[in-house]
Design goal:
218 residues, mainly alpha, Serine Threonine Protein Phosphatase 5, Tetratricopeptide repeat, 2 domains, 76% helix
Length: 218
């Protein structure tokens, strides 16, 4: 089959396509990801000018990212994709995936750097509002609630029409609560209660903050 084409006729016009098919078959139909990685690597190294090479390199990154959950190795492969194929379409999407890998590794500084790269280099990207919100979330996750609050508020100012606005408003309320600005948090949760889809979640948060506020002011 395809292996014979590559073994017996490596200079054939279809050898690169054969390697691409081998990688897809091993990955999609047999879950033999090591063999798929090997086929894709042979394609990228042996036929770097092939039209199949960029997608083969992307496939390598995706296997490490989504199948092996080896985020450090996935980052190497994504970086190699952007380095070897600078004209690869939707580089903003690759930067976003790299950001998610850094998040999984709890590398918040690098995570924010990738998100900022999307905002700075691809201002028209469909990922910008997601990146901006994720930037705020990263500070909240790290316990930097004042910085998170600032970022959430900037998001609401910069992306007033974003469907992610409701999540940013929740972030504002959470950050106010964690910063012990309880009266402001209560007001934020009350306003959020009108629009947030999971009303029971907001009601529980509101009740807890109101209890803390009453205890503090006894």
């Amino acid at each position: 089959g395809f292996e014979l084409v590559v073994m017996d006729h490596p200079q054939s016009d279809v050898a690169d396509q054969a390697l691409h098919m081998i990688g897809q078959i091993y990955s999609l139909y047999f879950d033999q990801y090591d063999r798929a990685l090997s086929a894709y690597q042979r394609l990228v190294q042996g036929y770097p000018r092939s039209p199949y090479a960029p997608s083969a390199q992307l496939a390598r990154a995706e296997i490490y990212h989504y199948k092996y959950e080896d985020y450090a190795h996935a980052l190497i492969e994504y970086h190699r994709l952007l380095s070897l194929f600078p004209d690869f379409p939707q580089p903003d999407r690759i930067h976003y995936r790299m950001a998610r890998c850094f998040l999984e590794l709890r590398s918040f500084t690098q995570y924010r750097a990738e998100l900022q790269a999307i905002l700075d280099q691809y201002p028209d990207s469909t990922w910008t509002d997601d990146a901006a919100l994720s930037l705020a979330e990263s500070y909240y996750l790290e316990g930097q609630t004042e910085m998170a609050l600032t970022q959430y508020q900037e998001f609401l100012r910069d992306y007033p029409q974003s469907p992610l606005g409701i999540q940013a408003r929740f972030g504002v309320a959470k950050s106010l609560e964690e910063s012990l600005r309880l009266e402001e948090a209560i007001q934020a949760y009350k306003e959020l209660l009108k629009d947030y889809p999971n009303k029971s979640l907001i009601q529980d948060r509101l009740a807890a903050v109101e209890k803390r506020f009453q205890e503090r002011n006894r």
